[in-house]
Design goal:
Elements: H1 8-40, H2 45-74, H3 78-98, H4 104-126, H5 128-132, H6 138-165, H7 169-190, H8 206-209, H9 217-234, H10 240-248, H11 253-282, H12 285-305, H13 311-330, H14 332-338, H15 346-375, H16 380-402
Helix pairs in contact: 1-2, 1-4, 1-6, 1-7, 2-4, 2-15, 3-4, 3-7, 4-15, 6-7, 6-11, 6-14, 9-15, 9-16, 10-11, 11-13, 12-13, 12-16, 15-16
Length: about 400
Amino acid sequence: MERTRLTAGEHIALAAPWFAYNAQWGALLPIVIPAQIAAFAPQHKELALGLVMDAGALIALVATPLAGAWSDRAGDRRAFVGAGAAVSVLALLALGFGGTRVPLTAFAGAVLVLQLATNVWAGPYAATIPDRVPRAQRGVASAWMMVATVLGIVAGSAACGTLVQRGAYVAAYACIAGTVAGATAIAFAAVYRGGRAVTSPRRATARRFFPSPRAHRAFYVVLATRALVTMGIYSVYEFFLYFLGDVVRVPHPIANGSLLLGAAALAGIPGALLAGRAGDRTGPLPIVVGASWAMAALALAFAVLVFHPSWTATIVLALLYGGASCAYQAVDWALAVHVLPAREDAGKDMGIWHVSFVLPQLIAPGITGAVIAACKPVSLAFGYAIAFGLAALWFALGAVFVARLRLRETV
């Protein structure tokens, strides 16, 4: 039976936790954590940042699909979302009060706890759209998730960038913790108030944990495509503030970088809304392919910019990149839901899909950190040029990989 249509308010409430998720990582990954790592290990900040992020991504890689599968088996997502969010809030507060006064190992341990808790709730939460949104509204729901992504990144990067510039780590982490707690409360009040929305509990088996590649080829193509595009994003995203300060020589790179990231995300909203409407008419694939090629071209432009640093050119390229990235995200969730193998396994399969976002976080920062660290004694600019070139390669491969996909009826 088709689910009841959602109101605009319910769409916003459904997307609220995703706003918090992106406010959290939009602040922590490119701004707060790099700033703390730079204070802990100023001479080896690139390598140390890559190692910490890789360890966190490894945890997320395992936790997300397992939590999703467990929520399928339980027949309810609410306990996972609530408990995971609560532990995330505690970990955020611990990171804030620890600041740069604790040992680097203790800081890294708290980051890993946060990564685990976040993905315990993110996996089951990712199944909320197939659980509760009717087919006719999934494009709208995906667009709202994109808006939540953009606004979350803007809010997190702008607020925390200003606070970190002042050394106010406690306030920065408290701001994120409050956002996570508030967004979870909104979701429980408006979205989860009706109780269960998944099918009856089921027992997961190793045999069917991963869908058949032959029967569900489109599912795996989408996984691979999203992984490649995310490899491109995280090849440079977490090192962007270092790039602004060390290569472009921007004054106050934390403050200016956070403002630029926010402006780039906001600039992408109009194009993303147009992309969402176009996707309703033509399907999501042309948008995915076009946006991936656009991001590849812009990454190459950044690689050239490395040898001719310009703050003005950096702003222009970042704004254009924001438009391409938002256009991709406008259809990202809708495409994933479209290729789900079975609704009763939505938590597990959306958790596996989420891995295609997490796994690149395990690989890309380590590669970039090692490349820049190796090139730093000879030419820092050359190291960043290689990093942007790798990003362009991943984006292009993602476009090629998905271009011939044929979609069938969604679950």
